[in-house]
Design brief:
single chain; 246 residues; mainly alpha; disordered C terminus
């Protein structure tokens, strides 16, 4: 028997039923708030640390595996925040608290044993792994002529970082941002997909790229005044620059 019906059949005066019902409503609302906060923290606490390009490659591999800690967390949050309240007023209170988790249902909508939407994100990471090994010379491009020789002197990860540094539309940062927007994942939920503790190798490559630009005479400002470079702000502030809408 559902709780509202159970309360209605209690052999107590209607006034007492109302007090009891109001008390339960407050308790359920508080429980729903704690429940939502628990799963939000559980999700947001996930991160993988990488302090070198080699470690970054390992992280990318882990994130693209069909079975991993990353997948376990996403599926656990999806399964435990999906509530069909029906006409139950108490479950409706909990469901209201869990509205912020609705994107998990879109992100992890299963089709024939796969997750097509999440696979788009994994495809970007897999392509990034390939590009991190690609040492082919930069192809002639009139628009990029001034950077051609410079790019050919960069490591593969340096080229990836340089694209981020210049805010190029097809940089991996901007491609991930576009994907997040297409899924409807708001800024407060995006950190997990940028694996911030693994971004240090990219930040370091950006720093090296900026010094090289000055050395080549392609920019005249000091690297410490350019985007993504260590300056008066903390590393944590730089990492936030990778967020959508930052």
């Amino acid at each position: 028997m559902e709780l509202p019906a159970f309360i209605e059949e209690l052999p107590i005066p209607k006034k007492e039923k109302k007090y009891f019902s109001n008390f339960l409503a407050k308790e359920v609302e508080a429980y729903g708030r704690r429940y939502a906060e628990f799963y939000k923290n559980y999700y947001m606490d996930f991160d993988i640390e990488a302090k070198s390009p080699g470690a970054l490659r390992y992280v990318l591999t882990q994130l693209t595996l069909p079975s991993s800690q990353f997948m376990d967390i996403l599926l656990s949050v999806r399964d435990n925040t999906s509530v069909d309240p029906g006409q139950n007023e108490y479950l409706q209170s909990i469901a209201l608290r869990l509205r912020g988790f609705e994107f998990f249902q879109r992100l992890l909508e299963e089709q024939k044993g796969t997750f097509p939407e999440l696979n788009k994100y994994k495809a970007l990471l897999e392509q990034m792994q390939i590009d991190m090994q690609d040492r082919k010379p930069v192809i002639d491009d009139d628009k990029e002529e001034m950077f051609k020789d410079f790019k050919n002197r960069l490591t593969p990860l340096g080229r990836i970082s340089f694209a981020i540094f210049r805010d190029e539309p097809d940089s991996y940062l901007n491609l991930i941002k576009l994907w997040l927007k297409s899924v409807g994942i708001s800024s407060q939920w995006q950190d997990v997909f940028f694996w911030h503790r693994s971004i240090k190798p990219i930040l370091w490559e950006c720093r090296k790229s900026s010094w090289a630009l000055v050395r080549y005479g392609l920019i005249s400002c000091r690297p410490t005044s350019t985007l993504f470079i260590v300056n008066s702000h903390s590393i944590s502030h730089q990492i936030k620059m990778f967020r959508l809408g930052s």
